[in-house]
Write a structure and sequence with these properties.
By secondary structure, this protein is an alpha+beta fold. Helix content is 42%, strand content 13%. It holds the Pfam family Sterol-sensing.
């Protein structure tokens, strides 16, 4: 402290009186330093020195025991944290003994603690497994979740009719083999000459889906298409891609990976020159530098010819291809802006044994993972210019999640660095800071191995940041207590720190852990597992820090030990001279207080004085804010639906499902189907009839865009005769007529046109009396592509073969040959430039009706437009008209023979899982009728069933009599070529033990939880009615759907949040009551915590506008425990301190003069105390003045804040600094929880240092426990017997402001 000279105009008496008044009055926010006036004229008194103790052995001054040889009873000792010890209890003796061992053998203590932890964790250690399925966030307790998990697990373990056959007997029509968690499918094996079927190839498939978003630009834009073609060619030509596709994929299925299901493969074919009628040959490999015209690509795909040639595989469901009418105009609606490509790698894992197949699958997965990790993923992540590339696939999705998680966890380095700096600042030793941080992080693996959860969810990684914040707070408290007890010997110092800091941190750790463990009351299993994991982390952080930190502090203190000068005995810079001078003992060397700490404490003093000046204003404004927060939350709260969004908008994991929903859910190509022809010939439009075959397209150059009605649009080729002569050598003339138009003409018009064309071609040799035969075919041919050579653009037109006509010509000498020619007419489409053709006339003049009639009923529906499970058109069958997009419709599964678990475990996997129902007997005819009735009976219209997938209908159609008494035999026989039977039946020992049916319904999964649950109740009623009418062998059917699970989870979120917060609050209240022994104090802290949680909810719901989902629930519930830490620190110390010690010492300072020995060098240890030879006369003591309750509460609040305020601010700073790095993470769960951690840390710090002091000043409990206040004797009767009733001037009391936490201790001196 600064010294005041005797010449100062401020007298000692007036200065001390002003200091006293300022200290006791809460109305004065001004800080006034005490003036210490040196008293001269007293000669120095020699000081007896105690004998030096051996190194590592400290004086025994902790327990108030009678020393050996002493006859006086133990006196009361007041520790620096305000606790009075009157006798040595067993716990104190134990603590003293442990403290001596820590002081003497710190390294051995740490080694022993390490061995204990290793022995506990070692046998339970397991490698962590990360759960990448984000749907686990909505895994809520309930029948829907239990049934859904039972169905999924039973499906993965399903053994269909072919599962028990020998490998040599696997049928190619859908034979499946379960290999661990993987499924292997069999290809169609060839047959030998003897008719014996060989072992078919076994296929293990991996896939990649790539979606392209052109950002509102048509994908057929020249630049966009070129960019897409170049990117996909680069992807397919990756070395690893080519190696897998050419060497490890079954040869007949290589087309699925190169070129794959890709429109770009057909847009960028390489061209080779053709011969004869073939204009050129296209190789559909996607490796050309320039694309063919888009109309040609679309026409080639649209006209089909193979299952893979289906526009629904490539374009969105709303896309309509342009009409092939020769105009080149797009179809009505927006141009296509998205495109899909899919690639399937059918690894050949054929082997003779099951183990050989397993090895093949393992090698395939390893190879695929390596290629994806090293080549495919980097290229897909880089993308291409002008187009957003979105991707998904086997291992690719989990790789991206893991890569993102790893990159986000790198931010933990910054967080750890911030915490390390804060620890370094507090501990003043780098090695001590590093080891303290390692001890904190050690709690994570210890808690993990003790948690029964199988996998870690993404939110579990938040524990890293939370544990660092909670652990650093504990370290700060221990270090602060250690510094404030620096005047004690080491063993006593260790014991006091363990008793005071340990009790304080134990209270906060148990309360925080109890709040985390309160999540066990939640119905969301991920929240229960996370709460249990965090609760263990908090407890182990406390245990490990308590075990390791005191020994490390002892080692650090020995390294920094200050050895006093032989001629000097360290002493305090000033001391009170009592009436009877007793030579003081030499205290421990003094350490200089850090300037930043001293400045922070001065600010805390000012803060407390201002809060004490107007506590009512602080409380009123806080209550007003809470009301406003509640109103804002009630107005803006909304629920999140579906699986929580883990990644930000625009991330691949978010954008891919959104784009994927725009496409049809058309299944992949059957792996048993051979690929399309790699070479596709394109024929010339002017090729003679009969000279071409297998043409994929017809091509010509445009002569006239679209002719007028007066132009000739029918053209004839040169006449072909055996001798090569002209018409004069022909006896008869045959004509083959083709038409390019927007649609077909009627048969009558075709007959009229053919007849007119042959007459026009015959010219003068045509005679009406002679015979003319016409054969009308009127069938559509491959598309005609008409290219403008000058512009390079092209249009597509439909092409029809009208038929043929033959006319007998008038007799002419030498005319004995049969001649032919071709005629090509164009109606409403551009005219081709046909080499050697001559005009025959105008088409309209040849038609009978002089118009085109588009007769859709004559057109054959292409086979590629139909697929398994397609809806029957309404004209043929009365069907429900869908109102919901197909990608949003719900699939409902009805099952027999499977029992779902009845209960959900509190933590970890369900040991019961599922089982087969022994009462289900599918061989019973009544059971067969019950299952068949579910498919054939008319269900209620309220179920809105669009289509059904029923294996039993397929079986019934194959049998002559149903139900069958030889049911099992029939199933085994017919299931080899029935995919429905193989997928919907479970068999054990050649008997059907379970079955299922699938229903696709016209009800959206995103209409809200209430609507879905109401729709689910319709199915409940329907199933109950069906079971009530079935026999006992099939009356336990139940239904499941993914939508049921999501709906129940959404409803459970609200109920779970409220219940868990209540349980957490009650658990925290119980722990606070246990350690404060004061229900009033516990209630005040609980109300404050609820206020912090309300402010946090306002931050999430109103400020950040987040819908309330699982992540937000985790944030609210988890931080109930986190927000109680700071407030409990303050409340715990407020309940411990008395407040009278400080006031008593100030009165003693007023009554006695002070002797101050100035140090000539402020940076050195102060000189020895020089007591006077004769005590100065005592000043007359003023009359005793008792403080009222409010003034006493002010003093106690001041002591509590000053003792814990620095640690609270340090912990807040470290937590905010560590969590700030979460804000720049990629995963939204980290950014959200990082924002929440920062918000709750700031709110908790503000509440503990501002709001709680104001509340305690106004209505805080008086000193002592509730029993002491209610039942003990009044204070004036016990004033001299204890600290709660200490009388002013008691010489046994010391100044807590100089020896306790938070104020300038007497172990420090000011600059």
């Amino acid at each position: 402290m600064d010294e005041v000279s005797p010449e100062s105009p401020r007298t000692p008496e007036s200065g001390r009186q002003e200091d006293l008044e300022d200290e006791l009055s809460p109305l004065s926010p001004v800080l006034v330093e005490e003036a210490h006036v040196p008293v001269d004229g007293f000669p120095p008194q020699p000081v007896e020195e105690e004998p030096a103790l051996p190194e590592g052995v400290s004086g025994d001054v902790l327990a108030p025991l009678t020393r050996e040889g002493s006859e006086s009873p133990p006196k009361a000792e007041l520790t620096a944290h305000g606790t009075v010890l009157t006798e040595a209890s067993k716990s104190q003796l134990l603590m003293r003994a442990y403290a001596r061992q820590v002081e003497r053998r710190p390294k051995l203590i740490m080694l022993f603690a390490t061995l204990v932890v290793a022995a506990l964790v070692g046998p339970l250690f397991r490698m962590p497994t990360i759960e990448f399925d984000f749907s686990t966030f909505i895994r809520a307790d309930g029948d829907s979740m239990l049934r859904r998990e039972a169905y999924i697990l039973a499906l993965s373990a399903r053994k269909g009719p072919n599962a028990r056959r020998r490998l040599e007997e696997l049928r190619p029509e859908g034979g499946f083999l379960q290999v661990g968690e993987d499924v292997v499918q069999a290809l169609d094996p060839p047959e030998t000459a003897s008719g014996r079927r060989l072992l078919g190839q076994l296929i293990y498939t991996q896939s990649v889906s790539v979606l392209y978003d052109a950002r509102g630009v048509s994908i057929f834009d020249k630049k966009v298409l070129a960019s897409l073609g170049s990117f996909e060619a680069q992807l397919r030509n990756l070395p690893g891609w080519q190696m897998i596709c050419k060497e490890q994929v079954a040869q007949v299925l290589q087309y699925l990976c190169d070129p794959g299901e890709s429109l770009l493969a057909y847009s960028f074919p390489t061209q080779a020159k053709g011969q004869g009628a073939t204009r050129f040959v296209l190789e559909m490999n996607g490796n050309a530098a320039e694309p063919i015209p888009a109309p040609a690509t679309l026409a080639f795909i649209e006209q089909g010819g193979h299952e893979i040639l289906d526009l629904r595989r490539f374009m969105d469901i709303n896309y309509q291809p342009p009409l092939r009418n020769g105009t080149g105009a797009e179809a009505a609606g927006a141009a296509p802006t998205v495109l899909r490509s899919r690639f399937f790698f059918a690894f050949d894992v054929t082997a003779d044994t099951q183990s050989g197949i397993q090895d093949g699958v393992r090698r395939s997965k390893e190879t695929w993972a390596r290629v994806v990790r090293e080549e495919v993923y980097p290229l897909l992540r880089a993308g291409t210019t002008g187009v957003d590339v979105r991707y998904s696939g086997d291992y690719l999705t989990s790789l991206e999640l893991l890569d993102t998680l790893q990159s986000d966890l790198l931010f933990a380095i910054g967080s750890v660095a911030v915490v390390l700096l804060c620890l370094w600042f507090q501990l003043q030793a780098l090695w001590l800071s590093v080891f303290s941080l390692l001890v904190i992080l050690l709690a994570l693996p210890v808690a993990y191995v003790l948690t029964p959860a199988e996998k870690l969810t993404i939110t579990s990684f938040l524990a890293l940041f939370l544990v660092v914040g909670i652990g650093s707070d504990t370290v700060f408290v221990y270090a602060d207590f250690w510094d404030q007890e620096s005047h004690r010997p080491l063993d006593e110092r260790v014991a006091v720190v363990l008793m005071s800091a340990g009790t304080n941190c134990l209270a906060t750790s148990l309360t925080t852990a109890a709040s985390f463990l309160a999540n066990l009351a939640s119905v969301l299993q991920p929240l229960r597992e996370f709460g249990f994991f965090m609760g263990l982390c908090v407890l182990w952080v406390f245990v490990l820090i308590t075990l390791y930190l005191p020994p490390m502090l002892v080692i650090q203190s020995r390294w920094q030990k200050v050895v006093p000068s032989p001629t000097q005995v360290p002493a305090e810079p000033f001391a009170i001279v009592p009436a009877e001078v007793v030579p003081p003992k030499a205290p421990a060397p003094k350490l200089k207080e850090k300037r930043c700490s001293r400045l922070t404490r001065s600010y805390l003093r000012a803060l407390v004085k201002r809060v004490s000046f107007c506590p009512s204003v602080v409380v009123i404004f806080s209550a007003l804010f809470m009301v406003l927060f509640g109103i804002g939350i009630s107005l803006d709260i909304r629920l999140a639906t579906g699986v929580p969004q883990i990644f930000p908008d625009g991330h691949n994991q978010v954008a891919f499902p959104v784009l994927e929903a725009k496409f049809s859910s058309i299944p992949r190509v059957d792996i048993g189907l051979e690929g399309p022809e790699p070479l596709e010939p394109v024929c010339s439009a002017d090729a003679a009839w009969g000279t071409f075959s297998g043409c994929s397209l017809f091509w010509c150059d445009q002569a006239v865009a679209i002719p007028s009605s007066s132009d000739s649009d029918c053209w004839a080729s040169p006449i072909r005769s055996p001798s090569g002569g002209g018409l004069e050598r022909c006896e008869s003339l045959g004509l083959y007529g083709r038409l390019g138009a927007a649609g077909p003409i009627s048969s009558a018009d075709a007959r009229s046109v053919l007849s007119s064309l042959v007459q026009a071609a015959a010219g003068s040799r045509h005679h009406a009396a002679l015979s003319t035969s016409v054969s009308v075919v009127n069938v559509e041919m491959k598309t005609l592509v008409q290219e403008s050579w000058s512009t390079g653009s092209a249009v597509a037109s439909r092409q029809f073969y009208m038929g043929s006509a033959r006319a007998t010509l008038s007799a002419l000498a030498g005319a004995n040959e049969t001649c032919d020619l071709d005629a090509f007419c164009f109606s409403g489409v551009p005219v081709c430039e046909l080499e050697g053709y001559t005009a025959l006339g105008n088409f309209d003049s040849f038609t009978a009706a002089r118009r085109l009639e588009v007769l859709e009923e004559e057109l054959e529906v292409p086979a590629s437009a139909l697929c398994e499970g397609a809806l029957v058109p309404a004209a043929r069958k009365l069907a429900l008209i869908p109102e919901v997009p197909e990608n949003k419709q719900i699939d409902v599964t009805v099952l027999w023979g499977i029992r779902a678990p009845r209960t959900t475990p509190l933590l970890g996997p369900n040991p019961e899982q599922w089982s087969f129902d022994p009462y289900f007997q599918m061989s019973n005819p009544w059971a067969q009728r019950a299952v068949l009735g579910m498919c054939e009976d008319n269900p209620p219209d309220e179920l809105r069933i669009l289509r059904k997938r029923c294996w039993i209908v397929d079986l019934k159609d194959r049998l002559r009599r149903f139900p069958s008494r030889t049911f099992t035999t029939e199933v085994l026989y017919w299931s080899s070529d029935s995919l429905a039977m193989q997928e919907q039946l479970w068999m054990v020992d050649d008997a059907v033990v379970a079955a299922m049916l699938n229903f696709h319904v016209d009800f959206a999964f995103d209409v809200g939880a209430d609507a879905i649950l109401e729709y689910k109740s319709r199915w409940d009623r329907y199933m109950d009615a069906s079971n009530s009418q079935s026999s006992a062998t099939a009356n336990m059917a139940w239904h499941t759907a993914a939508a049921w699970v999501m709906a129940e989870a959404e409803v459970a979120i609200i109920n779970s949040t409220i219940l868990t917060i209540v349980v957490a609050a009650l658990g925290g209240f119980a722990c606070m009551l246990l350690f404060t022994s004061d229900p009033v104090l516990a209630v005040l802290v609980l109300l404050l915590v609820m206020g912090v949680v309300t402010g946090l909810a306002f931050f999430m719901v109103v400020i950040m506008a987040w819908p309330l989902g699982p992540i937000e629930v985790i944030s609210l519930v988890v931080f109930v425990g986190y927000s109680v830490t700071y407030s409990l620190h303050v409340a715990h110390i407020f309940g411990e301190v008395d407040g009278l010690e400080e006031y008593t010492q100030q009165q003693v300072n007023q009554m006695q003069p002070q002797v101050v020995v100035q140090s000539h060098d402020k940076d050195e240890v102060p000189g020895s105390l020089a007591p006077p030879a004769q005590a100065p006369p005592l000043l007359e003591a003023p009359s005793f003045m008792e403080l009222d309750n409010q003034q006493l509460r002010i003093v106690r609040v001041r002591q509590a804040v000053l003792r814990i305020g620095l640690s609270t601010l340090s912990s807040t700073l470290s937590t905010v600094g560590a969590s700030a790095f979460l804000l720049i993470a990629t995963m939204q769960v980290f950014t959200k929880l990082g924002s929440v951690v920062i918000a709750v840390s700031l709110l908790s710090c503000l509440a503990s240092l501002v709001v709680l002091p104001a509340v305690l000043v106004l209505c805080g409990p008086n000193a002592g426990s509730l029993y002491q206040r209610c039942c003990a004797r009044p204070r004036n009767e016990t004033a001299a017997s204890g600290p709660s009733g200490a009388r002013c001037g008691s010489p046994e009391l010391t100044d807590l402001d100089q020896g306790g936490r938070g104020n300038t201790p007497d172990g420090y001196h000011a600059d």
